What we know:
Largest sheet: none
Low-confidence stretches: none
Radius of gyration: 17 Å
Distance between the termini: 19 Å
Strand content: under 5%
Amino acid sequence: xxxxxxxxxxxxxxxxxxxxxxxxxxxxxxxxxxxxxxxxxxxxxxxxxxxxxxxxxxxxxxxxxxxxxx
Length: 70
């Protein structure tokens, strides 16, 4: 399209696929190992909430450092 800036997908953007792959149900559909009495099924998902925030922060940082943002 004319007048529309082209955006490149950089390798670090592929990090955004990690949460989608990691949260595919067959990877964590079990009760053991439990953590503090919490079944694996639940604490694994909760851990990925924090890890997803970290992944997004890393991609955001690299995107703005290389001029990919804005």
